[in-house]
Write a structure and sequence with these properties.
Number of helices of chain A: 12
Structural class of chain B: mainly alpha
Bound molecules: adenosine-5'-triphosphate, magnesium ion
Number of domains of chain B: 1
Order of helices and strands of chain B: HHHHHHHHHHHH
CATH architecture of chain B: Orthogonal Bundle
Number of strands of chain A: 16
Shape of chain A: elongated
Distance between the termini of chain A: 52 Å
CATH topology of chain B: MetI-like fold
Radius of gyration of chain B: 21 Å
CATH class of chain B: Mainly Alpha
Order of helices and strands of chain A: EEEHEEEEHEHHHEHEHEEHHHEHEEHE
Strand content of chain B: under 5%
Structural class of chain A: alpha+beta
Largest interface: A-B, 39 and 26 residues
Oligomer: heterodimer
């Protein structure tokens, strides 16, 4: 369990203060893949770097497992029976080594082989050479790179480099893995394989993963829950399914649209495409079907029972961690009363109805 | 020996002196080089870790080191040589000869080398340091296992450049009676109008510089993106 309370971090620059993280509170359950999404500069990296204290927050509390860290005026304390105790450099290092982290640019040591990179956190930790060797090979198997053991990073593809980085981050058996844009520098194939690996590690090891991204597709692929960040604050938080079904804020809606074929509607409307031209007795509607009604013939039932015509402009089904979610944008036409009744019928059947354009106005 | 006698008759006459001069230059180069190497490396690391955004930020230590390096660097070597005579006499007991030249040579080399080391270490991607920090590395681990380790090719390159400039400085050390190829060329070549001696000195120095540069380039290349000696696992 990771619990963050009122975490804040301000950078004092010559040009003024940057409030990178403002009073963020979050709670992440064990074994979850937790996404943090936001545009560039939203404070995602800063927030995550505060979690393993690479950045020392100005104030707030962080609980990771049994460790309760309290931050006051940029000082780090641990809460135990005796109250607050200041943490020294050694303890800070020990604390960090208990949390794994991977990065956008892999950050491997270029002059070390794959073996030595993975052995890095194990060496000088009191572990015997034989045990180090055994653990490194175990990790190599975990990320499926045994044949690259004596190779240097320069000879690896991006995806392979990230696998080495993942193995290295997991060397000390952390309960939590922080991933800062780990797939942003990879091609789509490698992205998919790294995400699959992360999901696999999450299931196999019960590893809690906190994953930063600016791509909704990544959230869709692996996350259970997601927090949306803007200007240092978490503006929306919930299960990925709920966020997709009912985005509350403008920024969340933009992220959802950006990853869904339904997002194209904005372009069509802007370009005044004939597809979305409607006249009297017609409405352009967006329907979102939750998992309870995906697979039921609700639209055709509405059409039949209310004598409506549906002409589909865009349609899509997403498969999220929480289940499928359907979306449809189309022009519905019929008599005024029937239109009203039909849309109410949809609403009563767990379909979220949004009228994008009304031909009678 | 026949060839030397035939083409450079004057050098032949002073050949013993020439060999002594070479060995004096060699001695100054090795001793001053070794000391400057250690001190420059330490100060270079100190600058990188204590600077703003460094892993052990310390503005006072940084400013002090920085100022020392800047001041020493702005003094021309020949002036430094004279300026340091009293100090050298106190520290090593004599201010002349090869022994007397070591301290000023170190003082003349360290500032340059420190800056070069600083640049080489700054070339290590901050991400690597960040990753090592996230794995729990402390200050010493970061310095030795990340900064120095990853900067090896760059360090070899700057060490080569510094070594070459040190050769240049040793030729000036003749001013305090340290001997060496530089003073040999002036005393036995230029002053006595023996152009052949000057020519041979130039060639000898060129060969040394060329050899240093070649070895440096080779080693830098061999250590880029890999260890010099690879252990298989
Ligand atoms: N070390 C630092 N010193 C000063 N300002 C910083 C520092 N790190 C981050 N910031 C500032 O804090 C804000 C948040 O940065 P952060 O890197 O957390 O954003 P992000 O959401 O990760 O963005 P990106 O998607 O570009 O990585 C930005 O305005 C950034 O300029
Ligand atoms: Mg970032």
């Amino acid at each position: 369990m990771i619990e963050i309370q009122n975490l804040s971090k301000t950078f004092h620059l010559k040009t003024g203060d940057v409030r990178a993280v403002q009073n963020v509170s979050l709670s992440i359950a064990d074994g979850q893949v937790y996404g943090i999404i936001g545009y560039s500069g939203a404070g995602k990296s800063t927030l995550v770097r505060c979690l393993n204290l690479l950045e020392v927050p100005d104030g707030g509390e962080i609980r990771i497992g049994a460790d309760q860290i309290v931050l006051q005026n940029g000082r780090i304390f641990r809460r135990d029976q005796g109250g607050l105790r200041r943490i020294g450099e050694r303890q800070l290092c020990a604390l960090r080594s208990g949390i794994g982290m991977i990065f956008q640019h892999f950050n491997l040591l270029d002059r070390s082989t794959v073996y030595e990179n993975i052995a890095y956190p194990l060496k000088y930790s009191g572990m015997k050479a034989g045990a180090v060797r055994e653990r490194v090979y175990e990790l190599l198997d975990l990320v499926d790179l045994r044949d690259k053991v004596n190779v240097y990073p320069a000879q690896l593809s991006g995806g392979q480099k990230q696998r080495v980085a993942i193995a290295r981050a997991l060397a000390n058996n952390p309960r939590v893995l922080l991933s800062d844009e780990a797939t942003s520098a990879l091609d789509p194939d490698a992205t998919e394989s790294i995400l699959a690996l992360l999901k696999d590690l999450n299931r196999k090891l019960g590893l809690t993963i906190v994953l930063i991204t600016h791509e909704m597709a990544v959230i869709k692929a692996v996350c259970d829950r997601v927090a949306v960040m803007e200007d240092g604050r978490v503006v929306e938080e919930g299960s990925v399914y709920e966020i997709f079904a009912h985005p509350q804020t403008g920024i969340t809606r933009r992220f959802v649209d950006s990853s869904s074929p339904l997002g194209k509607i904005d372009r069509l409307l802007e370009e005044q495409s004939p597809l979305v031209e409607i006249g009297p007795g017609q409405k352009l509607v967006k329907l979102i079907f939750r998992k309870e009604c995906v697979g039921e013939a609700i639209v055709t039932r509405a059409a039949r029972e209310f004598g409506l015509d549906f002409s589909i402009v865009l349609a899509n089904v997403e498969y999220l961690q929480g289940g499928p979610i359907g979306g449809l944008i189309g022009v519905v036409s019929g008599k005024k009363e029937d239109l009203k009744g039909g849309l109410r019928f949809l609403d009563e059947n767990h379909v979220t109805v949004e009228v994008l354009r009304d031909g009678d106005h | 020996m026949g060839i030397i006698e035939r083409y450079t008759p004057n050098l032949y006459n002073y050949f013993d002196r020439f060999l002594t001069s070479c060995s004096a230059t060699f001695e100054m180069f090795c001793k001053a080089g070794a000391i400057a190497f250690v001190i420059g490396l330490v100060l270079g690391v100190l600058l990188v870790v204590t600077r703003k955004g460094g892993i052990a930020r310390n503005p006072i230590l940084y400013q002090l080191t920085n100022a020392l390096v800047n001041v020493l660097r702005s003094i021309p070597f020949i002036i430094l040589l004279i300026f340091l005579i009293p100090l050298t006499r106190k520290v090593v007991g004599t201010a002349i000869g090869v022994r007397g030249a070591i301290l000023p040579l170190v003082a003349g080399t360290v500032p340059f080398y420190t800056r070069q080391v600083e640049v080489a270490l700054s070339g290590v991607e901050p991400g690597k340091v960040e990753a090592a920090r996230s794995m729990g590395s402390g200050l010493l681990g970061l310095i030795f296992r990340v900064y120095l380790h990853e900067a090896v090719p760059a360090l070899i390159r700057v060490t080569t450049v510094t070594a070459i400039s040190l050769i240049g400085l040793t030729t000036m050390a003749g001013a305090v009676g340290a001997g060496g190829i530089g003073s040999f060329a002036i005393n036995y070549g230029q002053n006595q109008n023996h152009q052949d001696i000057v020519n041979v000195c130039v060639v000898a120095l060129l060969l040394v510089v060329f050899a240093l540069q070649t070895i440096g380039n080779l080693l830098a290349k061999r250590t880029t993106n890999r260890a010099l000696i690879q252990r298989r696992h």
